[in-house]
Design a protein that fits this description.
This protein is mainly α. It has six helices and no strands. Helix 2 packs across helix 6, helix 4 crosses helix 5 and helix 4 runs antiparallel to helix 6. Bound molecules: heme C.
Length: about 130
């Protein structure tokens, strides 16, 4: 292989990896916009922390990867009936988002102040 070509292909691979990383970095502002446009507060409540029904989960402050995978699971069921979380409401809500949207939404929602219990490790140590 011509050394110049080899160097250019390596550069190409490096650039490809760099843009792959950029695509995965979550954008909180985009996530906030998608949540606001998506009408999520209609059910999950103000700040996504006060659900309108006790059956609806509190989203604010849950771990980012948990939220991301939960939303992917709703999409999976929507696309392949044999796999994924089975919830008609949420399957519909997340159907139009792409993977990057889900990363952005998860990052934003995770950043919100949560009313959920956070263990006090000093007072309540785990084995
Ligand atoms: C019409 C009511 C409704 C709307 C609007 C709604 N959700 Fe939900 N959401 C639910 C219900 C009900 C569940 C619980 C479903 C289940 O049992 O799996 C849920 C579950 C979730 C979960 C999983 C939480 C967990 O702890 O497992 C996430 C994440 C989520 N919703 C995100 C969103 C986002 C983001 C939006 C806006 C784009 C949204 N929801 C809009 C009703 C709604």
């Amino acid at each position: 292989m011509n050394p110049m070509f080899a160097r250019l292909s390596l550069l190409g691979i490096a650039v490809a990896f760099a843009s792959l990383n950029a695509a995965h970095a979550a954008n909180l502002q985009k996530g906030q916009a998608l949540v606001n446009q998506g009408g999520c507060i209609a059910c999950h409540g103000a700040g996504l922390a006060k659900p309108v029904s006790p059956d609806y989960p509190i989203l604010a402050g849950q771990p980012q990867s948990y939220l991301f995978h939960a939303m992917q699971q709703y999409q999976a069921k929507h696309q392949t009936p044999l796999y994924g979380r089975d919830n008609a409401i949420m399957a519909g809500m997340v159907a139009r988002f792409d993977t990057q949207d889900l990363h952005d939404i998860a990052a934003y929602v995770s950043s919100l102040k949560t009313p959920l219990y956070e263990p006090d490790m000093a007072r309540d140590p785990r084995p």
